[in-house]
Amino acid sequence: MVAQEFTVDLDKPLVFQVGHLGEAYEEWVHQPIVSREGPRFFENEFVESLTRTVWWAIPSIWLPVVCYCVLKSVRMGHALPEIALMVVSGIFIWTLLEYTLHRFLFHIKTKSYWGNTLHYLLHGCHHKHPMDGLRLVFPPAATAILLVPFWNMVLLFASPSITPALFGGGLLGYVMYDCTHYYLHHGHPGNDVPKNLKKYHMNHHFRVQDKGFGITSSLWDRVFGTLPPSKMATKM
Question: What is the 3-class SS of 5-48, one letter each residue?
């Protein structure tokens, strides 16, 4: 017997449908639908509302936390040059984390029902509906949960007085990443640097989806050999 191919109904909530695609999910999710109007995820209104986030919520919520963390290290006796080094180090570490998560977690291959479902929630929805403006940044509730283990991880490698500023720098890096990501999809760059960055990221969405994992820069793509072909030609 040949199993009947499952078809996703885009007029119904998607999250619990995509798992049924099985091995066909990988191809389906990388065929983008370019529309500013996003799909419905869940039938329940409250759960659905948790999946939608306006971009300005990210700096509004997390920049005060960044300031609190940095000031905490200042109060513990660190001089401003030391604080600056901690914050810049945190931002730098975030860029590597940004690349690593995007390449190895967000682009993990799945084919099981729950694997497809979780991947769609995590990142697949963004590739299927790349212009959905309310699902471009990470929901603050989910971020708050993830910050707890990240704080404890930093605490393992840094002293109690360094941890707040280093963590704050990483969080600042995340805010910069999410705001940059939104801008690359919906902004209209006027000079070459953001124009090239937008082109680089759109190339990841619409041409070479298994390369170009950097969002805020192509640094780690250059380091780890995941530049898209056109960039590789330029580099050579």
Answer: CCCCCCCCCCHHHHHHHHHHHHHHHCCCCCCCCCCCCCCCHHHH
